[in-house]
Design brief:
Elements lengths: L3 H17 L5 H14 L17 E4 L13 H6 L5 E4 L16 H19 L4 E6 L1 H12 L6 E7 L21 H8 L1 H4 L6 H7 L9 E6 L19 E5 H4 L7 H6 L2 H11 L15
Parallel strand pairs: 1-2, 1-3, 3-4, 4-5, 5-6
Helix pairs in contact: 1-6, 4-5
Length: 290
Amino acid sequence: MLPWKHVVRALSVLLLTAAASLAPTAAQADTTQVEAAAGRGWNDFSCKPSAEHPRPVVLVHGTFGNSVDNWLGLAPYLVNRGYCVFSLDYGQLPGVPLFHGLGPVDKSAEQLAAYVDRVLAATGARKADLVGHSQGGMMPRYYLKFLGGADKVNALVGIAPDNHGTTLSGLTKLLPYFPGAEDLLKTSTPGLADQIVGSAVLTKLNAGGDTVPGVRYTVIATRYDEVVTPYQSGWLSGPNVSNVLLQDRCALDLSEHVAIGTVDRIVFHEVGNALDPAHATPTTCLSVVG
């Protein structure tokens, strides 16, 4: 039998050390990211919401993402349409710049709570809207349900979220066959372990219902998601929920898990509709040029 514990450890270490090698220090990387975002028109804490778009939008990146790279497409798209847009880094591991979302989901939700408070204080808005990709569409639900976020958030838009966990196309089902592998995963990257179907965090999060009163929820999923498997795991049940399959809007759209949250302008249009339903226009394949 292969030494699976050592294989998992080696892959984790290799990935994280490779991430660390991409920047001299985590502090320098964070500074560069903040400056990059400000230069592109978002994370501008002097921005004041307009009457047309009265709520700031907080973008929540996915696992292995960060506050800039995940949003190089969507953030400018929203800024150009008059929104005050902000994005945070969360779930950082010590000594690992650029690749975030790896810490425990409950602690990441605490970071989100503090960031939303900062955005609301700066903008003077009473509530914010949240848009998250992958874990970034699921983790905010912990904030809404357990950390008082429901009083401060109007809408949550999840792009390919793993609301009920993922099997990673069945790979996570192999963990019980390799003693110690799951414990190693929890120790090295708890944010990943928290997203496995049946994890303690997801069991707690989904107990008693998927949603909380007063918040509008939109889920946008793709049939070709190879990370959140099955893709229906993202669907939510409850009042004020809209579950959207991308291919129902454009059957020709082949976006998978990464593309749906980073470059797909059809999805961007659907996000815009979710943020401003009173002025929504049909999302079609032609939305790619909108």
